[in-house]
Amino acid sequence: MDILKYIQQQYSHFNLTEEELSVLGEYITVQHFKRNELFLEEHTTCEKMGLLVTGTAYSYIINDQGEEVIQDFLYPNGQEILFNYESYFQQENSILNIKFQEDAMVSYFNLEEVKKLYKEYPRFLQFEFLLTQQEFINAVHKNQMLQLKSAEEKIKLLQNQKPKVFELFPYVNIASYLGIHRNTFRRVFSKQ
Fold first, then answer.
1. CA–CA dist 132, 123 (Å, integer)
2. Interatomic CA distance for residues 173 and 175, integer angstroms
């Protein structure tokens, strides 16, 4: 797969020039990951931003009982950016893990390396802002979700905001993301 053509298609609204794509291509690494491998591991600082080309992944934290608590779902053509906004911008160790649910292909770049190009290619800064918008939108959506009272309301909101999640991820993960017990999720979801 020609990753630069893929990026050009995915972000056609940004109108990257051939020169910009060529320069960006020098900094992009394409890597294949296996199921259960990590793109980002807790206790490390997020230094790279990835584009999930194939496969699915999810982000999670580990709670006090040692259980994974799902924070977000990641998949091509909608939720494809692999990144921990908080860790990167505060330059702190991440509490977040990003794990692949299935074999995946990711293109990524080291943000510090690309930042060196901002003076010569100022649109790369705009491109970075465009990519981090997803993080902001996800935070708003998650906040809306947390403010809802019932499991039914949470499920309906997620179905409206991210309908593909119900096709791509196990219900136990969706229940974790919504902050409801998996049995409650199954009972409420089966009534819809």
1. 14
2. 5
pTM for the whole structure:
0.88
Residue that is written with structure tokens 């505060």 in the block: 90
pLDDT for 134-162, tens place per residue?
A: 778 878 888 887 787 799 999 999 999 89
Q: How many Cα atoms sit within 13 Å of 43 on the Cβ side?
A: 1
Other CB atoms within a 10 A radius of the CB of residue 171 amount to: 12
Residue 114 contacts residue 27 (beta carbons within 8 Å)? yes
Residue showing tokens 């919504």 = 178
Q: How far apart are CA 7 and CA 86, in angstroms?
A: 24
| 139/5 Cα distance (integer angstroms) | 30
Which helix or strand (DSSP H or E) is residue 96 part of?
A: none
CA-to-CA dists, residue 180 to 71, 96, 119, 188, angstroms: 13, 20, 47, 11
* Residue-wise pLDDT tens digits, 49-101: 999 999 999 999 999 999 999 999 999 987 888 999 889 889 999 999 999 99
Sign of CA dihedral 87, 68, 81, 44: positive
**How many Å apart are CA 22 and CA 124, to the nearest integer?**
12
- Tell me whether residue 150 is exposed, middle or buried, using C-beta atoms within 10 angstroms of its C-beta: 0 to 12, 13 to 18, 19 or more: exposed
CA atoms within 13 A on the CB side of 70: 22
